[in-house]
Amino acid sequence: MRRLERLVAMALYLGARRRVLARDVADRFDISLRTVYRDVAALIEAGFPVEGTAGDGYRIAQTAFQRPLALTADEAEVLAVAARGFRAAADPALRDALARATAKLEASLDRGARARMRELDARIVEGDAHRIGPSAAILESLREHRVAQIRYVDTRSGKRSERAIEPLGLICRGDAWWLIAYCRTKRDARAFRVDAIASWRATTETFAPRPGFTLSEIVARDRHLAAQLFGS
């Protein structure tokens, strides 16, 4: 990344966060602390209202940016999912461009929308899928931690079943999106192919994370148990 591109990306990065330590900036852009200090000084000299110090962290006040975009939470979430799906299949150059575009999008959102976008992004695991499947109803249940009643069609046997699930996150596998959830019917973690979910009804019941059944724990534990996890 050329220095000018890095300076612009750094300004967007600082503007999209409450306060960032110099070490975090160095890690994000794979540069030395000395380079961070020099780049921050260059931003200040160029007129960017960078606040803070190396020890306390840096920030650029939200009011320093014009925000021509007025995205709703739903629109931001859809873009987050689309970015994940495209990033999985893109070459390195396109992934870098997408990362810069996502940073610009994030900088244009208000604090609440940024928090929702980041939470959703953290619950999506990249893979090599090419199709985008999650519906708005699925994303809402993920965000609100709501129990869902689904009708599912097994992709291998064609068997239909009714399930009560606690949706935990999304993962790309092969050429499709899968929803990772705790299945109350099976009393275990399961992955449901999104395009095989025939119906989805979010209930008013919310759920708390079960010990040992967070998205990261399930993925780590069942990485070598794909047949069990992705079975019906």
In words, what does this structure look like?
The protein is an alpha+beta fold and 232 residues long. It has 3 domains: 3-64, Winged helix-like DNA-binding domain superfamily/Winged helix DNA-binding domain (Arc Repressor Mutant, subunit A), CATH 1.10.10; 73-122, no CATH class; 136-229, SH3 type barrels. Helix content is 43%, strand content 24%. It is built from 9 helices and 8 strands. The chain has helices spanning 3-15, 22-29, 33-45, 73-89, 92-108, 111-122, 136-144, 215-221, 226-229; strands at residues 50-53, 57-60, 124-125, 146-153, 160-173, 176-183, 188-193, 197-206. Strands 3, 4, 5, 6, 7 and 8 form a 6-stranded mixed beta sheet that branches. A two-stranded antiparallel ribbon has the order 1-2. The longest helix is centred in the middle third of the chain and has 17 residues, at 73-89. The N and C termini lie far apart (45 Å). 25% of the residues are buried. The model has no long low-confidence stretch (mean pLDDT 78).
Descriptive terms for the model:
SH3 type barrels; Arc Repressor Mutant, subunit A; alpha+beta; 3 domains; 232 residues; 24% strand; 9 helices
